[in-house]
Amino acid sequence: GSDSFASGMFTRFDMTFLxxxxxxxxxxxxRQYKEYARDFGVALKVVGNKVQGPDDLEFLRxxxxxxxxxxxxxx
Length: 75
What we know:
By secondary structure, this protein is of the alpha/beta class. Helices cover 43% and strands 28% of the residues.
């Protein structure tokens, strides 16, 4: 969740990369991070993890929009 925001360390970076699985829980963590990051002017990009096909990638695109940087397959 949002533990990395508790220390304030995230404000020392221009951008935060969030690794998220294409699930409702993964997207909910993204939304929580997005809210915190926006409050402090920190850019956020998402790396999709365990993406198993076009449906997973489309789900992430629909949920995180332009914040999606790349999707990585499940190994």
